């Protein structure tokens, strides 16, 4: 069954909800170029403690940008709920073990796997061997591409601004799953817009992935949990961002998400 999974997005050292397509690929984090839906007055640890209280497991902490303030905020979250949260953003073979040792349950890797926009299998194998596949989540966040009436989803890197040469497919998920234990997929085109999920993508993820996969992007109603459950046959989990009251939204209540999970567990 589909579960609700939490998220903590960090940008400029603060917990935020942003429109994914407006992120810049440089590290200056120019606020004028980023469309922000929500900036929290609370620390990252505040949200980690809320997720801990309600046992929202597999919650991911994403650092959007390379500022030191993002690292500090991420560490605060990990310390609030050690060995339960996942960490992503700038993860590579040089720092993955540091984040595990700092309290991350798993690390989420994306751009580092795609030098020159090509999936580097050697990098993936080395990272998986270093920390173990059970500690590794591969981020396959993507953008939709239409060509001659056919729809495909292409992995996007560098804060979802650069398209790689990797197209999502059943074989890709099967091959990658030998080296990781989970996938995270943001639908970058609808991320932060609250205009609905990418239903065809969710359905494909349910068909393609042999290991757990979390979908993010566009969720705007508590009924989206049941929708994702139906489309993916219970194989894809869902996270909410800008639509959630926890992040200033008025479309989805956090307590309803928790109630959904509790119903699954009872």
From TrEMBL:
It is found in: Cytoplasm. GO terms for cellular component: cytoplasm. Its EC number is 5.3.1.16. GO terms for molecular function: 1-(5-phosphoribosyl)-5-[(5-phosphoribosylamino)methylideneamino]imidazole-4-carboxamide isomerase activity. Keywords: Amino-acid biosynthesis, Cytoplasm, Histidine biosynthesis, Isomerase. It comes from the Eukaryota. Pathway: Amino-acid biosynthesis; L-histidine biosynthesis; L-histidine from 5-phospho-alpha-D-ribose 1-diphosphate: step 4/9. InterPro entries: Aldolase_TIM, His6/HISN3, His_biosynth, Isoase_HisA-like, RibuloseP-bd_barrel. It catalyses: 1-(5-phospho-beta-D-ribosyl)-5-[(5-phospho-beta-D-ribosylamino)methylideneamino]imidazole-4-carboxamide = 5-[(5-phospho-1-deoxy-D-ribulos-1-ylimino)methylamino]-1-(5-phospho-beta-D-ribosyl)imidazole-4-carboxamide. GO terms for biological process: L-histidine biosynthetic process; L-tryptophan biosynthetic process. Belongs to the HisA/HisF family. This is 1-(5-phosphoribosyl)-5-[(5-phosphoribosylamino)methylideneamino] imidazole-4-carboxamide isomerase.
């Amino acid at each position: 069954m589909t579960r609700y999974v939490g998220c903590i997005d960090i940008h400029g050292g603060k917990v935020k909800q942003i429109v994914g397509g407006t992120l810049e690929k440089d590290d200056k984090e120019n606020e004028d170029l980023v469309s922000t839906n929500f900036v929290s007055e609370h620390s990252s640890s505040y949200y980690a403690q809320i997720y801990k209280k309600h046992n929202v497991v597999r919650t991911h902490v994403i650092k959007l940008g390379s500022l030191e303030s993002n690292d500090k905020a991420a560490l605060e979250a990990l310390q609030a709920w050690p060995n339960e949260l996942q960490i992503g953003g700038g993860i590579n073979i040089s720092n993955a073990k540091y984040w595990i040792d700092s309290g991350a349950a798993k690390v989420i890797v994306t751009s580092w796997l795609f030098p020159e926009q090509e999936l580097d299998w050697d990098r993936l194998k080395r990272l998986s061997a270093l920390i173990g596949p059970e500690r590794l989540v591969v981020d396959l966040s993507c953008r939709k591409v239409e060509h001659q009436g056919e729809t495909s989803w292409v992995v996007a890197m560098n804060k979802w601004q650069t398209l790689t040469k990797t197209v999502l497919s059943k074989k890709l998920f099967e091959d990658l799953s030998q080296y990781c234990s989970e996938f995270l997929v943001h639908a970058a085109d609808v991320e932060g817009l609250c205009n609905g999920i990418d239903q065809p993508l969710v359905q494909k993820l349910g068909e393609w992935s042999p290991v757990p996969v979390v979908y993010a992007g566009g969720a705007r109603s508590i009924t989206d949990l049941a929708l994702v459950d139906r489309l993916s046959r219970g194989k894809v989990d869902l996270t909410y961002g800008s639509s959630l009251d926890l992040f200033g939204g008025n479309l989805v209540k956090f307590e309803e998400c928790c109630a959904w999970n509790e119903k699954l567990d009872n």
